[in-house]
């Protein structure tokens, strides 16, 4: 009988909701191979020792997309356990400062309106991120 590891590895991930000047959000599609291959996500990655979350997000976005961003307000922190992995997603609103995003480490990228996010398939943990995002925007309307 197969058993699920009760202590799956834990990753702390800095996640960016990057806004441009037209109120659009940048999402990327993960490479087809590997964990959660082919799903859409908000760009980001694993924190390195000694880094703040803002530094992690800035570094990951430079590495993955070749752009500079300003890291702003904290949106939400999500703890989620997948079958073989536990993630803590620390999500911040960010703003594009410089450059045109390139799909350096992902399959494709897309600027979308908040209302169009539902048309893309995200990992399960993102349902809560998207709900928080819609909630945070409503406050301004
Ligand atoms: N970046 C990002 N990761 C997400 C989101 N939702 C979600 O469940 N994840 C999960 C998928 C991955 O297991 C993990 C992020 O890992 P990653 O593969 O981008 O990070 P990394 O490149 O720094 O990690 P690694 O090479 O050291 O494995 O978080 C999301 O919206 N954005
Ligand atoms: Mg990543």
Automatic annotation (TrEMBL):
The record's annotation in Gene3D superfamilies points to: Nucleoside Triphosphate Pyrophosphohydrolase
By its UniProt entry, which InterPro entries does this protein fall under?
Mutator_MutT (IPR003561), MutT-like (IPR047127), MutY_C (IPR029119), Nudix_hydrolase (IPR020476), NUDIX_hydrolase-like_dom_sf (IPR015797), NUDIX_hydrolase_CS (IPR020084), NUDIX_hydrolase_dom (IPR000086)
Gene Ontology molecular function:
8-oxo-7,8-dihydrodeoxyguanosine triphosphate pyrophosphatase activity; 8-oxo-7,8-dihydroguanosine triphosphate pyrophosphatase activity; 8-oxo-dGDP phosphatase activity; 8-oxo-GDP phosphatase activity; metal ion binding
What reaction is this protein's catalytic activity?
8-oxo-dGTP + H2O = 8-oxo-dGMP + diphosphate + H(+)
List, alphabetically, the Pfam families matched: NUDIX_4 (PF14815)
Keywords for this entry? DNA damage, DNA repair, DNA replication, Hydrolase, Magnesium, Metal-binding, Mutator protein
Task: Name the cofactor(s) required for activity, per the record.
Answer: Mg(2+)
A GO BP annotation: DNA repair
Q: Where does Mg(2+) bind?
A: 44, 64
As recorded in UniProt, its EC number(s) are: 3.6.1.55
Q: Using the record's annotation, list all stretches that form the Nudix hydrolase domain.
A: 8-136
Give the superkingdom in one word: Bacteria
Write out the transmembrane intervals: none
Q: Where does 8-oxo-dGTP bind?
A: 30, 41-44, 126
Task: Name the PROSITE patterns on file.
Answer: NUDIX, NUDIX_BOX
PANTHER family named in the record: 8-OXO-DGTP DIPHOSPHATASE, NUDIX HYDROLASE FAMILY PROTEIN
Q: What family is reported?
A: Belongs to the Nudix hydrolase family.
The protein's name is 8-oxo-dGTP diphosphatase
